[in-house]
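Sequence design from tokenized structure. All designs in this work follow the same two-part layout: the structure record, then the generated sequence. An example of the structure record is given first.
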């Protein structure tokens, strides 16, 4: 389970730093047991992010079953996708 408060702290950490692969290392060390994936926003199918911010969106991952899937349910969330948004 991931809480809304935890997701807000994750967003604040990203906002205060540079979004890159090293940020994922920082987030993993600050949130043990949470799976983090970094990609571009256009890699995500037409789904609504659970948190939108300037330069990135956050999605929740449900990894309880054999395959990972995106979810909007905090109770089922085991990870976070950080999707970078590049303004065209």
């Amino acid at each position: 389970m991931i809480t809304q408060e935890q997701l807000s702290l994750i967003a604040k950490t990203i906002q205060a730093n540079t979004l890159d692969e090293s940020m994922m290392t920082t987030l993993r060390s600050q949130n043990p047991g949470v799976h983090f994936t970094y990609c571009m926003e256009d890699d995500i199918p037409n789904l609504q992010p659970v948190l939108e911010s300037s330069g990135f969106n956050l999605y929740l991952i449900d990894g309880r079953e054999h395959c990972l899937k995106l979810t909007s349910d905090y109770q089922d969330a085991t990870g976070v996708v950080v999707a970078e948004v590049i303004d065209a």
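The chain has a mean pLDDT of 94. We note this feature because it recurs in several other targets discussed in the main text.
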